[in-house]
Amino acid sequence: MGRKKIETLIKEKISPYSLNEKGKSTIASLANTYSYELLCECIDIAASSYLNYDNEGRLTEESAEDFINKIGGIAYNKSLSPIDQQINYLLNIGKHQFSYWDKQKANALLREYIYQLQVYGWTSYMITNDLKTDSLRLIKESRNWSDWTAKIENWIQDIKSWIEEKNSDEVRQSGTILPNELIKDLPGNIRKLCEQINASYECNLFDCTAVIMRRLLESLLVISYQTLNIENEIMNKNGVFHISLDKIIINAQENQTLKLSANTKKDMMLFKDLGNYSAHKIWYNCTKGDIEQNALKYRTIIEELLYKSGIKQ
C-alpha cells in the first residue's frame, strides 16, 4: 500500500512523464527501506530542489529523472543521526569551499574530533550544535585544505589535553554550593568550574569562590544565547566580542526568547557584583557570610541556566 501511494505522489510530481520499470523498482526499494512519512518529506524536498520547467512552463524530462534519482539520497541523509547529518553537510561544504578536498580524510578528522569531545563528556546535543556553528565557521574561514586540516588537528590536540587535565587534576570537593548530583554529568569545562566553586568555598577561599561564581554565571548565559541562536544580541558593534556581563544581564532580564524566571532575573546582578568586588576592589575581601546567605539563590540560577543552555536536558 505504501509503495503505491509513493508511486502516485511521484507520478503527480513528474506529470506528463511516467515511471518506467527501473523507476518503479527504485521506488519499491525505497518503500521497503524507509517510512512512508519520511519518503513524503523527501519527495517534497527533491521536487522543490530539482524539478525545472522550460519557458512555456513544461517540466523538463532531464529534471524529472534527476528528481527521482535524488529521493534515495535525501532519504538516506534524513535517516541519519543529527551528528552524521551534520558531518555530511560539512563534507559537502568543504568540497565546494576549496579547490582540493580529501573527503575520506576530512571525514576521519571530523569523526576523531567528535570522538574526543565525547570522551571529554560532551553530549550529542552539544556536539551537534558545535558542528552547526564553530565547526562550520572553521571551514568557511579557512584559506584552503591545508589550513583547515592544520586547525582541526590543533582542535583535536587541544581536547586531548583537556582530557589529560581532567583525568590528572581532580578537584576535591563536597558539593557545598552546587550539589554533586547536579554537576556530576556536566561537560568537563563546566563541571570543573562548579567543582572549583565548591572546593574554594570549603577551603575558606571566598574571594576565589566569588570570582569563579561570576565566571560560571557569565559562561552559562553566553552558552544559552548561543543555543537559542540569539548570540548576536550580546555581541559588540563589530560582532567580535561579547558585551560586558552587566549588559548581558540587562538584556537577559528582558529577553523574551530566553524567558528567565523572575527570581533569576532579580538575583543575577548580585553575583556579578560579588565577583567584581573580589576581583577589583582593593579594600574588599569576600566573607563566608557574603556567599552563604546567597548560596541557594546561586544554585537556583545555575540550575535554570544549565537547562536553558541545553547542557542539561
**SS summary, helix count:** 16
Report helical residue fraction: over 70%
Main β sheet profile: none
Structural class: mainly alpha
Question: Percent of residues in beta strands?
Answer: under 5%
Mean pLDDT: 92
N- to C-terminal distance = 39 Å
Q: Low-confidence parts, pLDDT < 50 over ≥5 residues? A: none
Order of helices and strands: HHHHHHHHHHHHHHHH
**Rg, Å, rounded:** 26 Å
The count of β-strands is 0
User: What overall form do the CA principal axes indicate?
Assistant: elongated
Which key phrases capture this entry?
72% helix
Topology of helices and strands:
Blueprint: H1 2-14, H2 21-33, H3 36-50, H4 61-79, H5 82-97, H6 103-120, H7 124-132, H8 134-141, H9 145-168, H10 180-183, H11 188-202, H12 206-227, H13 245-254, H14 262-280, H15 288-292, H16 295-308
Helix pairs in contact: 1-2, 1-3, 3-4, 5-6, 5-7, 5-8, 6-9, 7-8, 11-12, 12-14, 12-16, 13-14, 14-16
Account of the protein in words:
With 313 residues, the chain is mainly alpha-helical. It is 72% helix and 0% strand. The chain has 16 helices and no strands. The chain has helices at 2-14, 21-33, 36-50, 61-79, 82-97, 103-120, 124-132, 134-141, 145-168, 180-183, 188-202, 206-227, 245-254, 262-280, 288-292, 295-308. The chain is elongated, with a radius of gyration of 26 Å. The model has no long low-confidence stretch (mean pLDDT 92).
Summarize the structure.
By secondary structure, this protein is mostly helical. It has 16 helices and no strands. Helix content is 72%, strand content 0%.
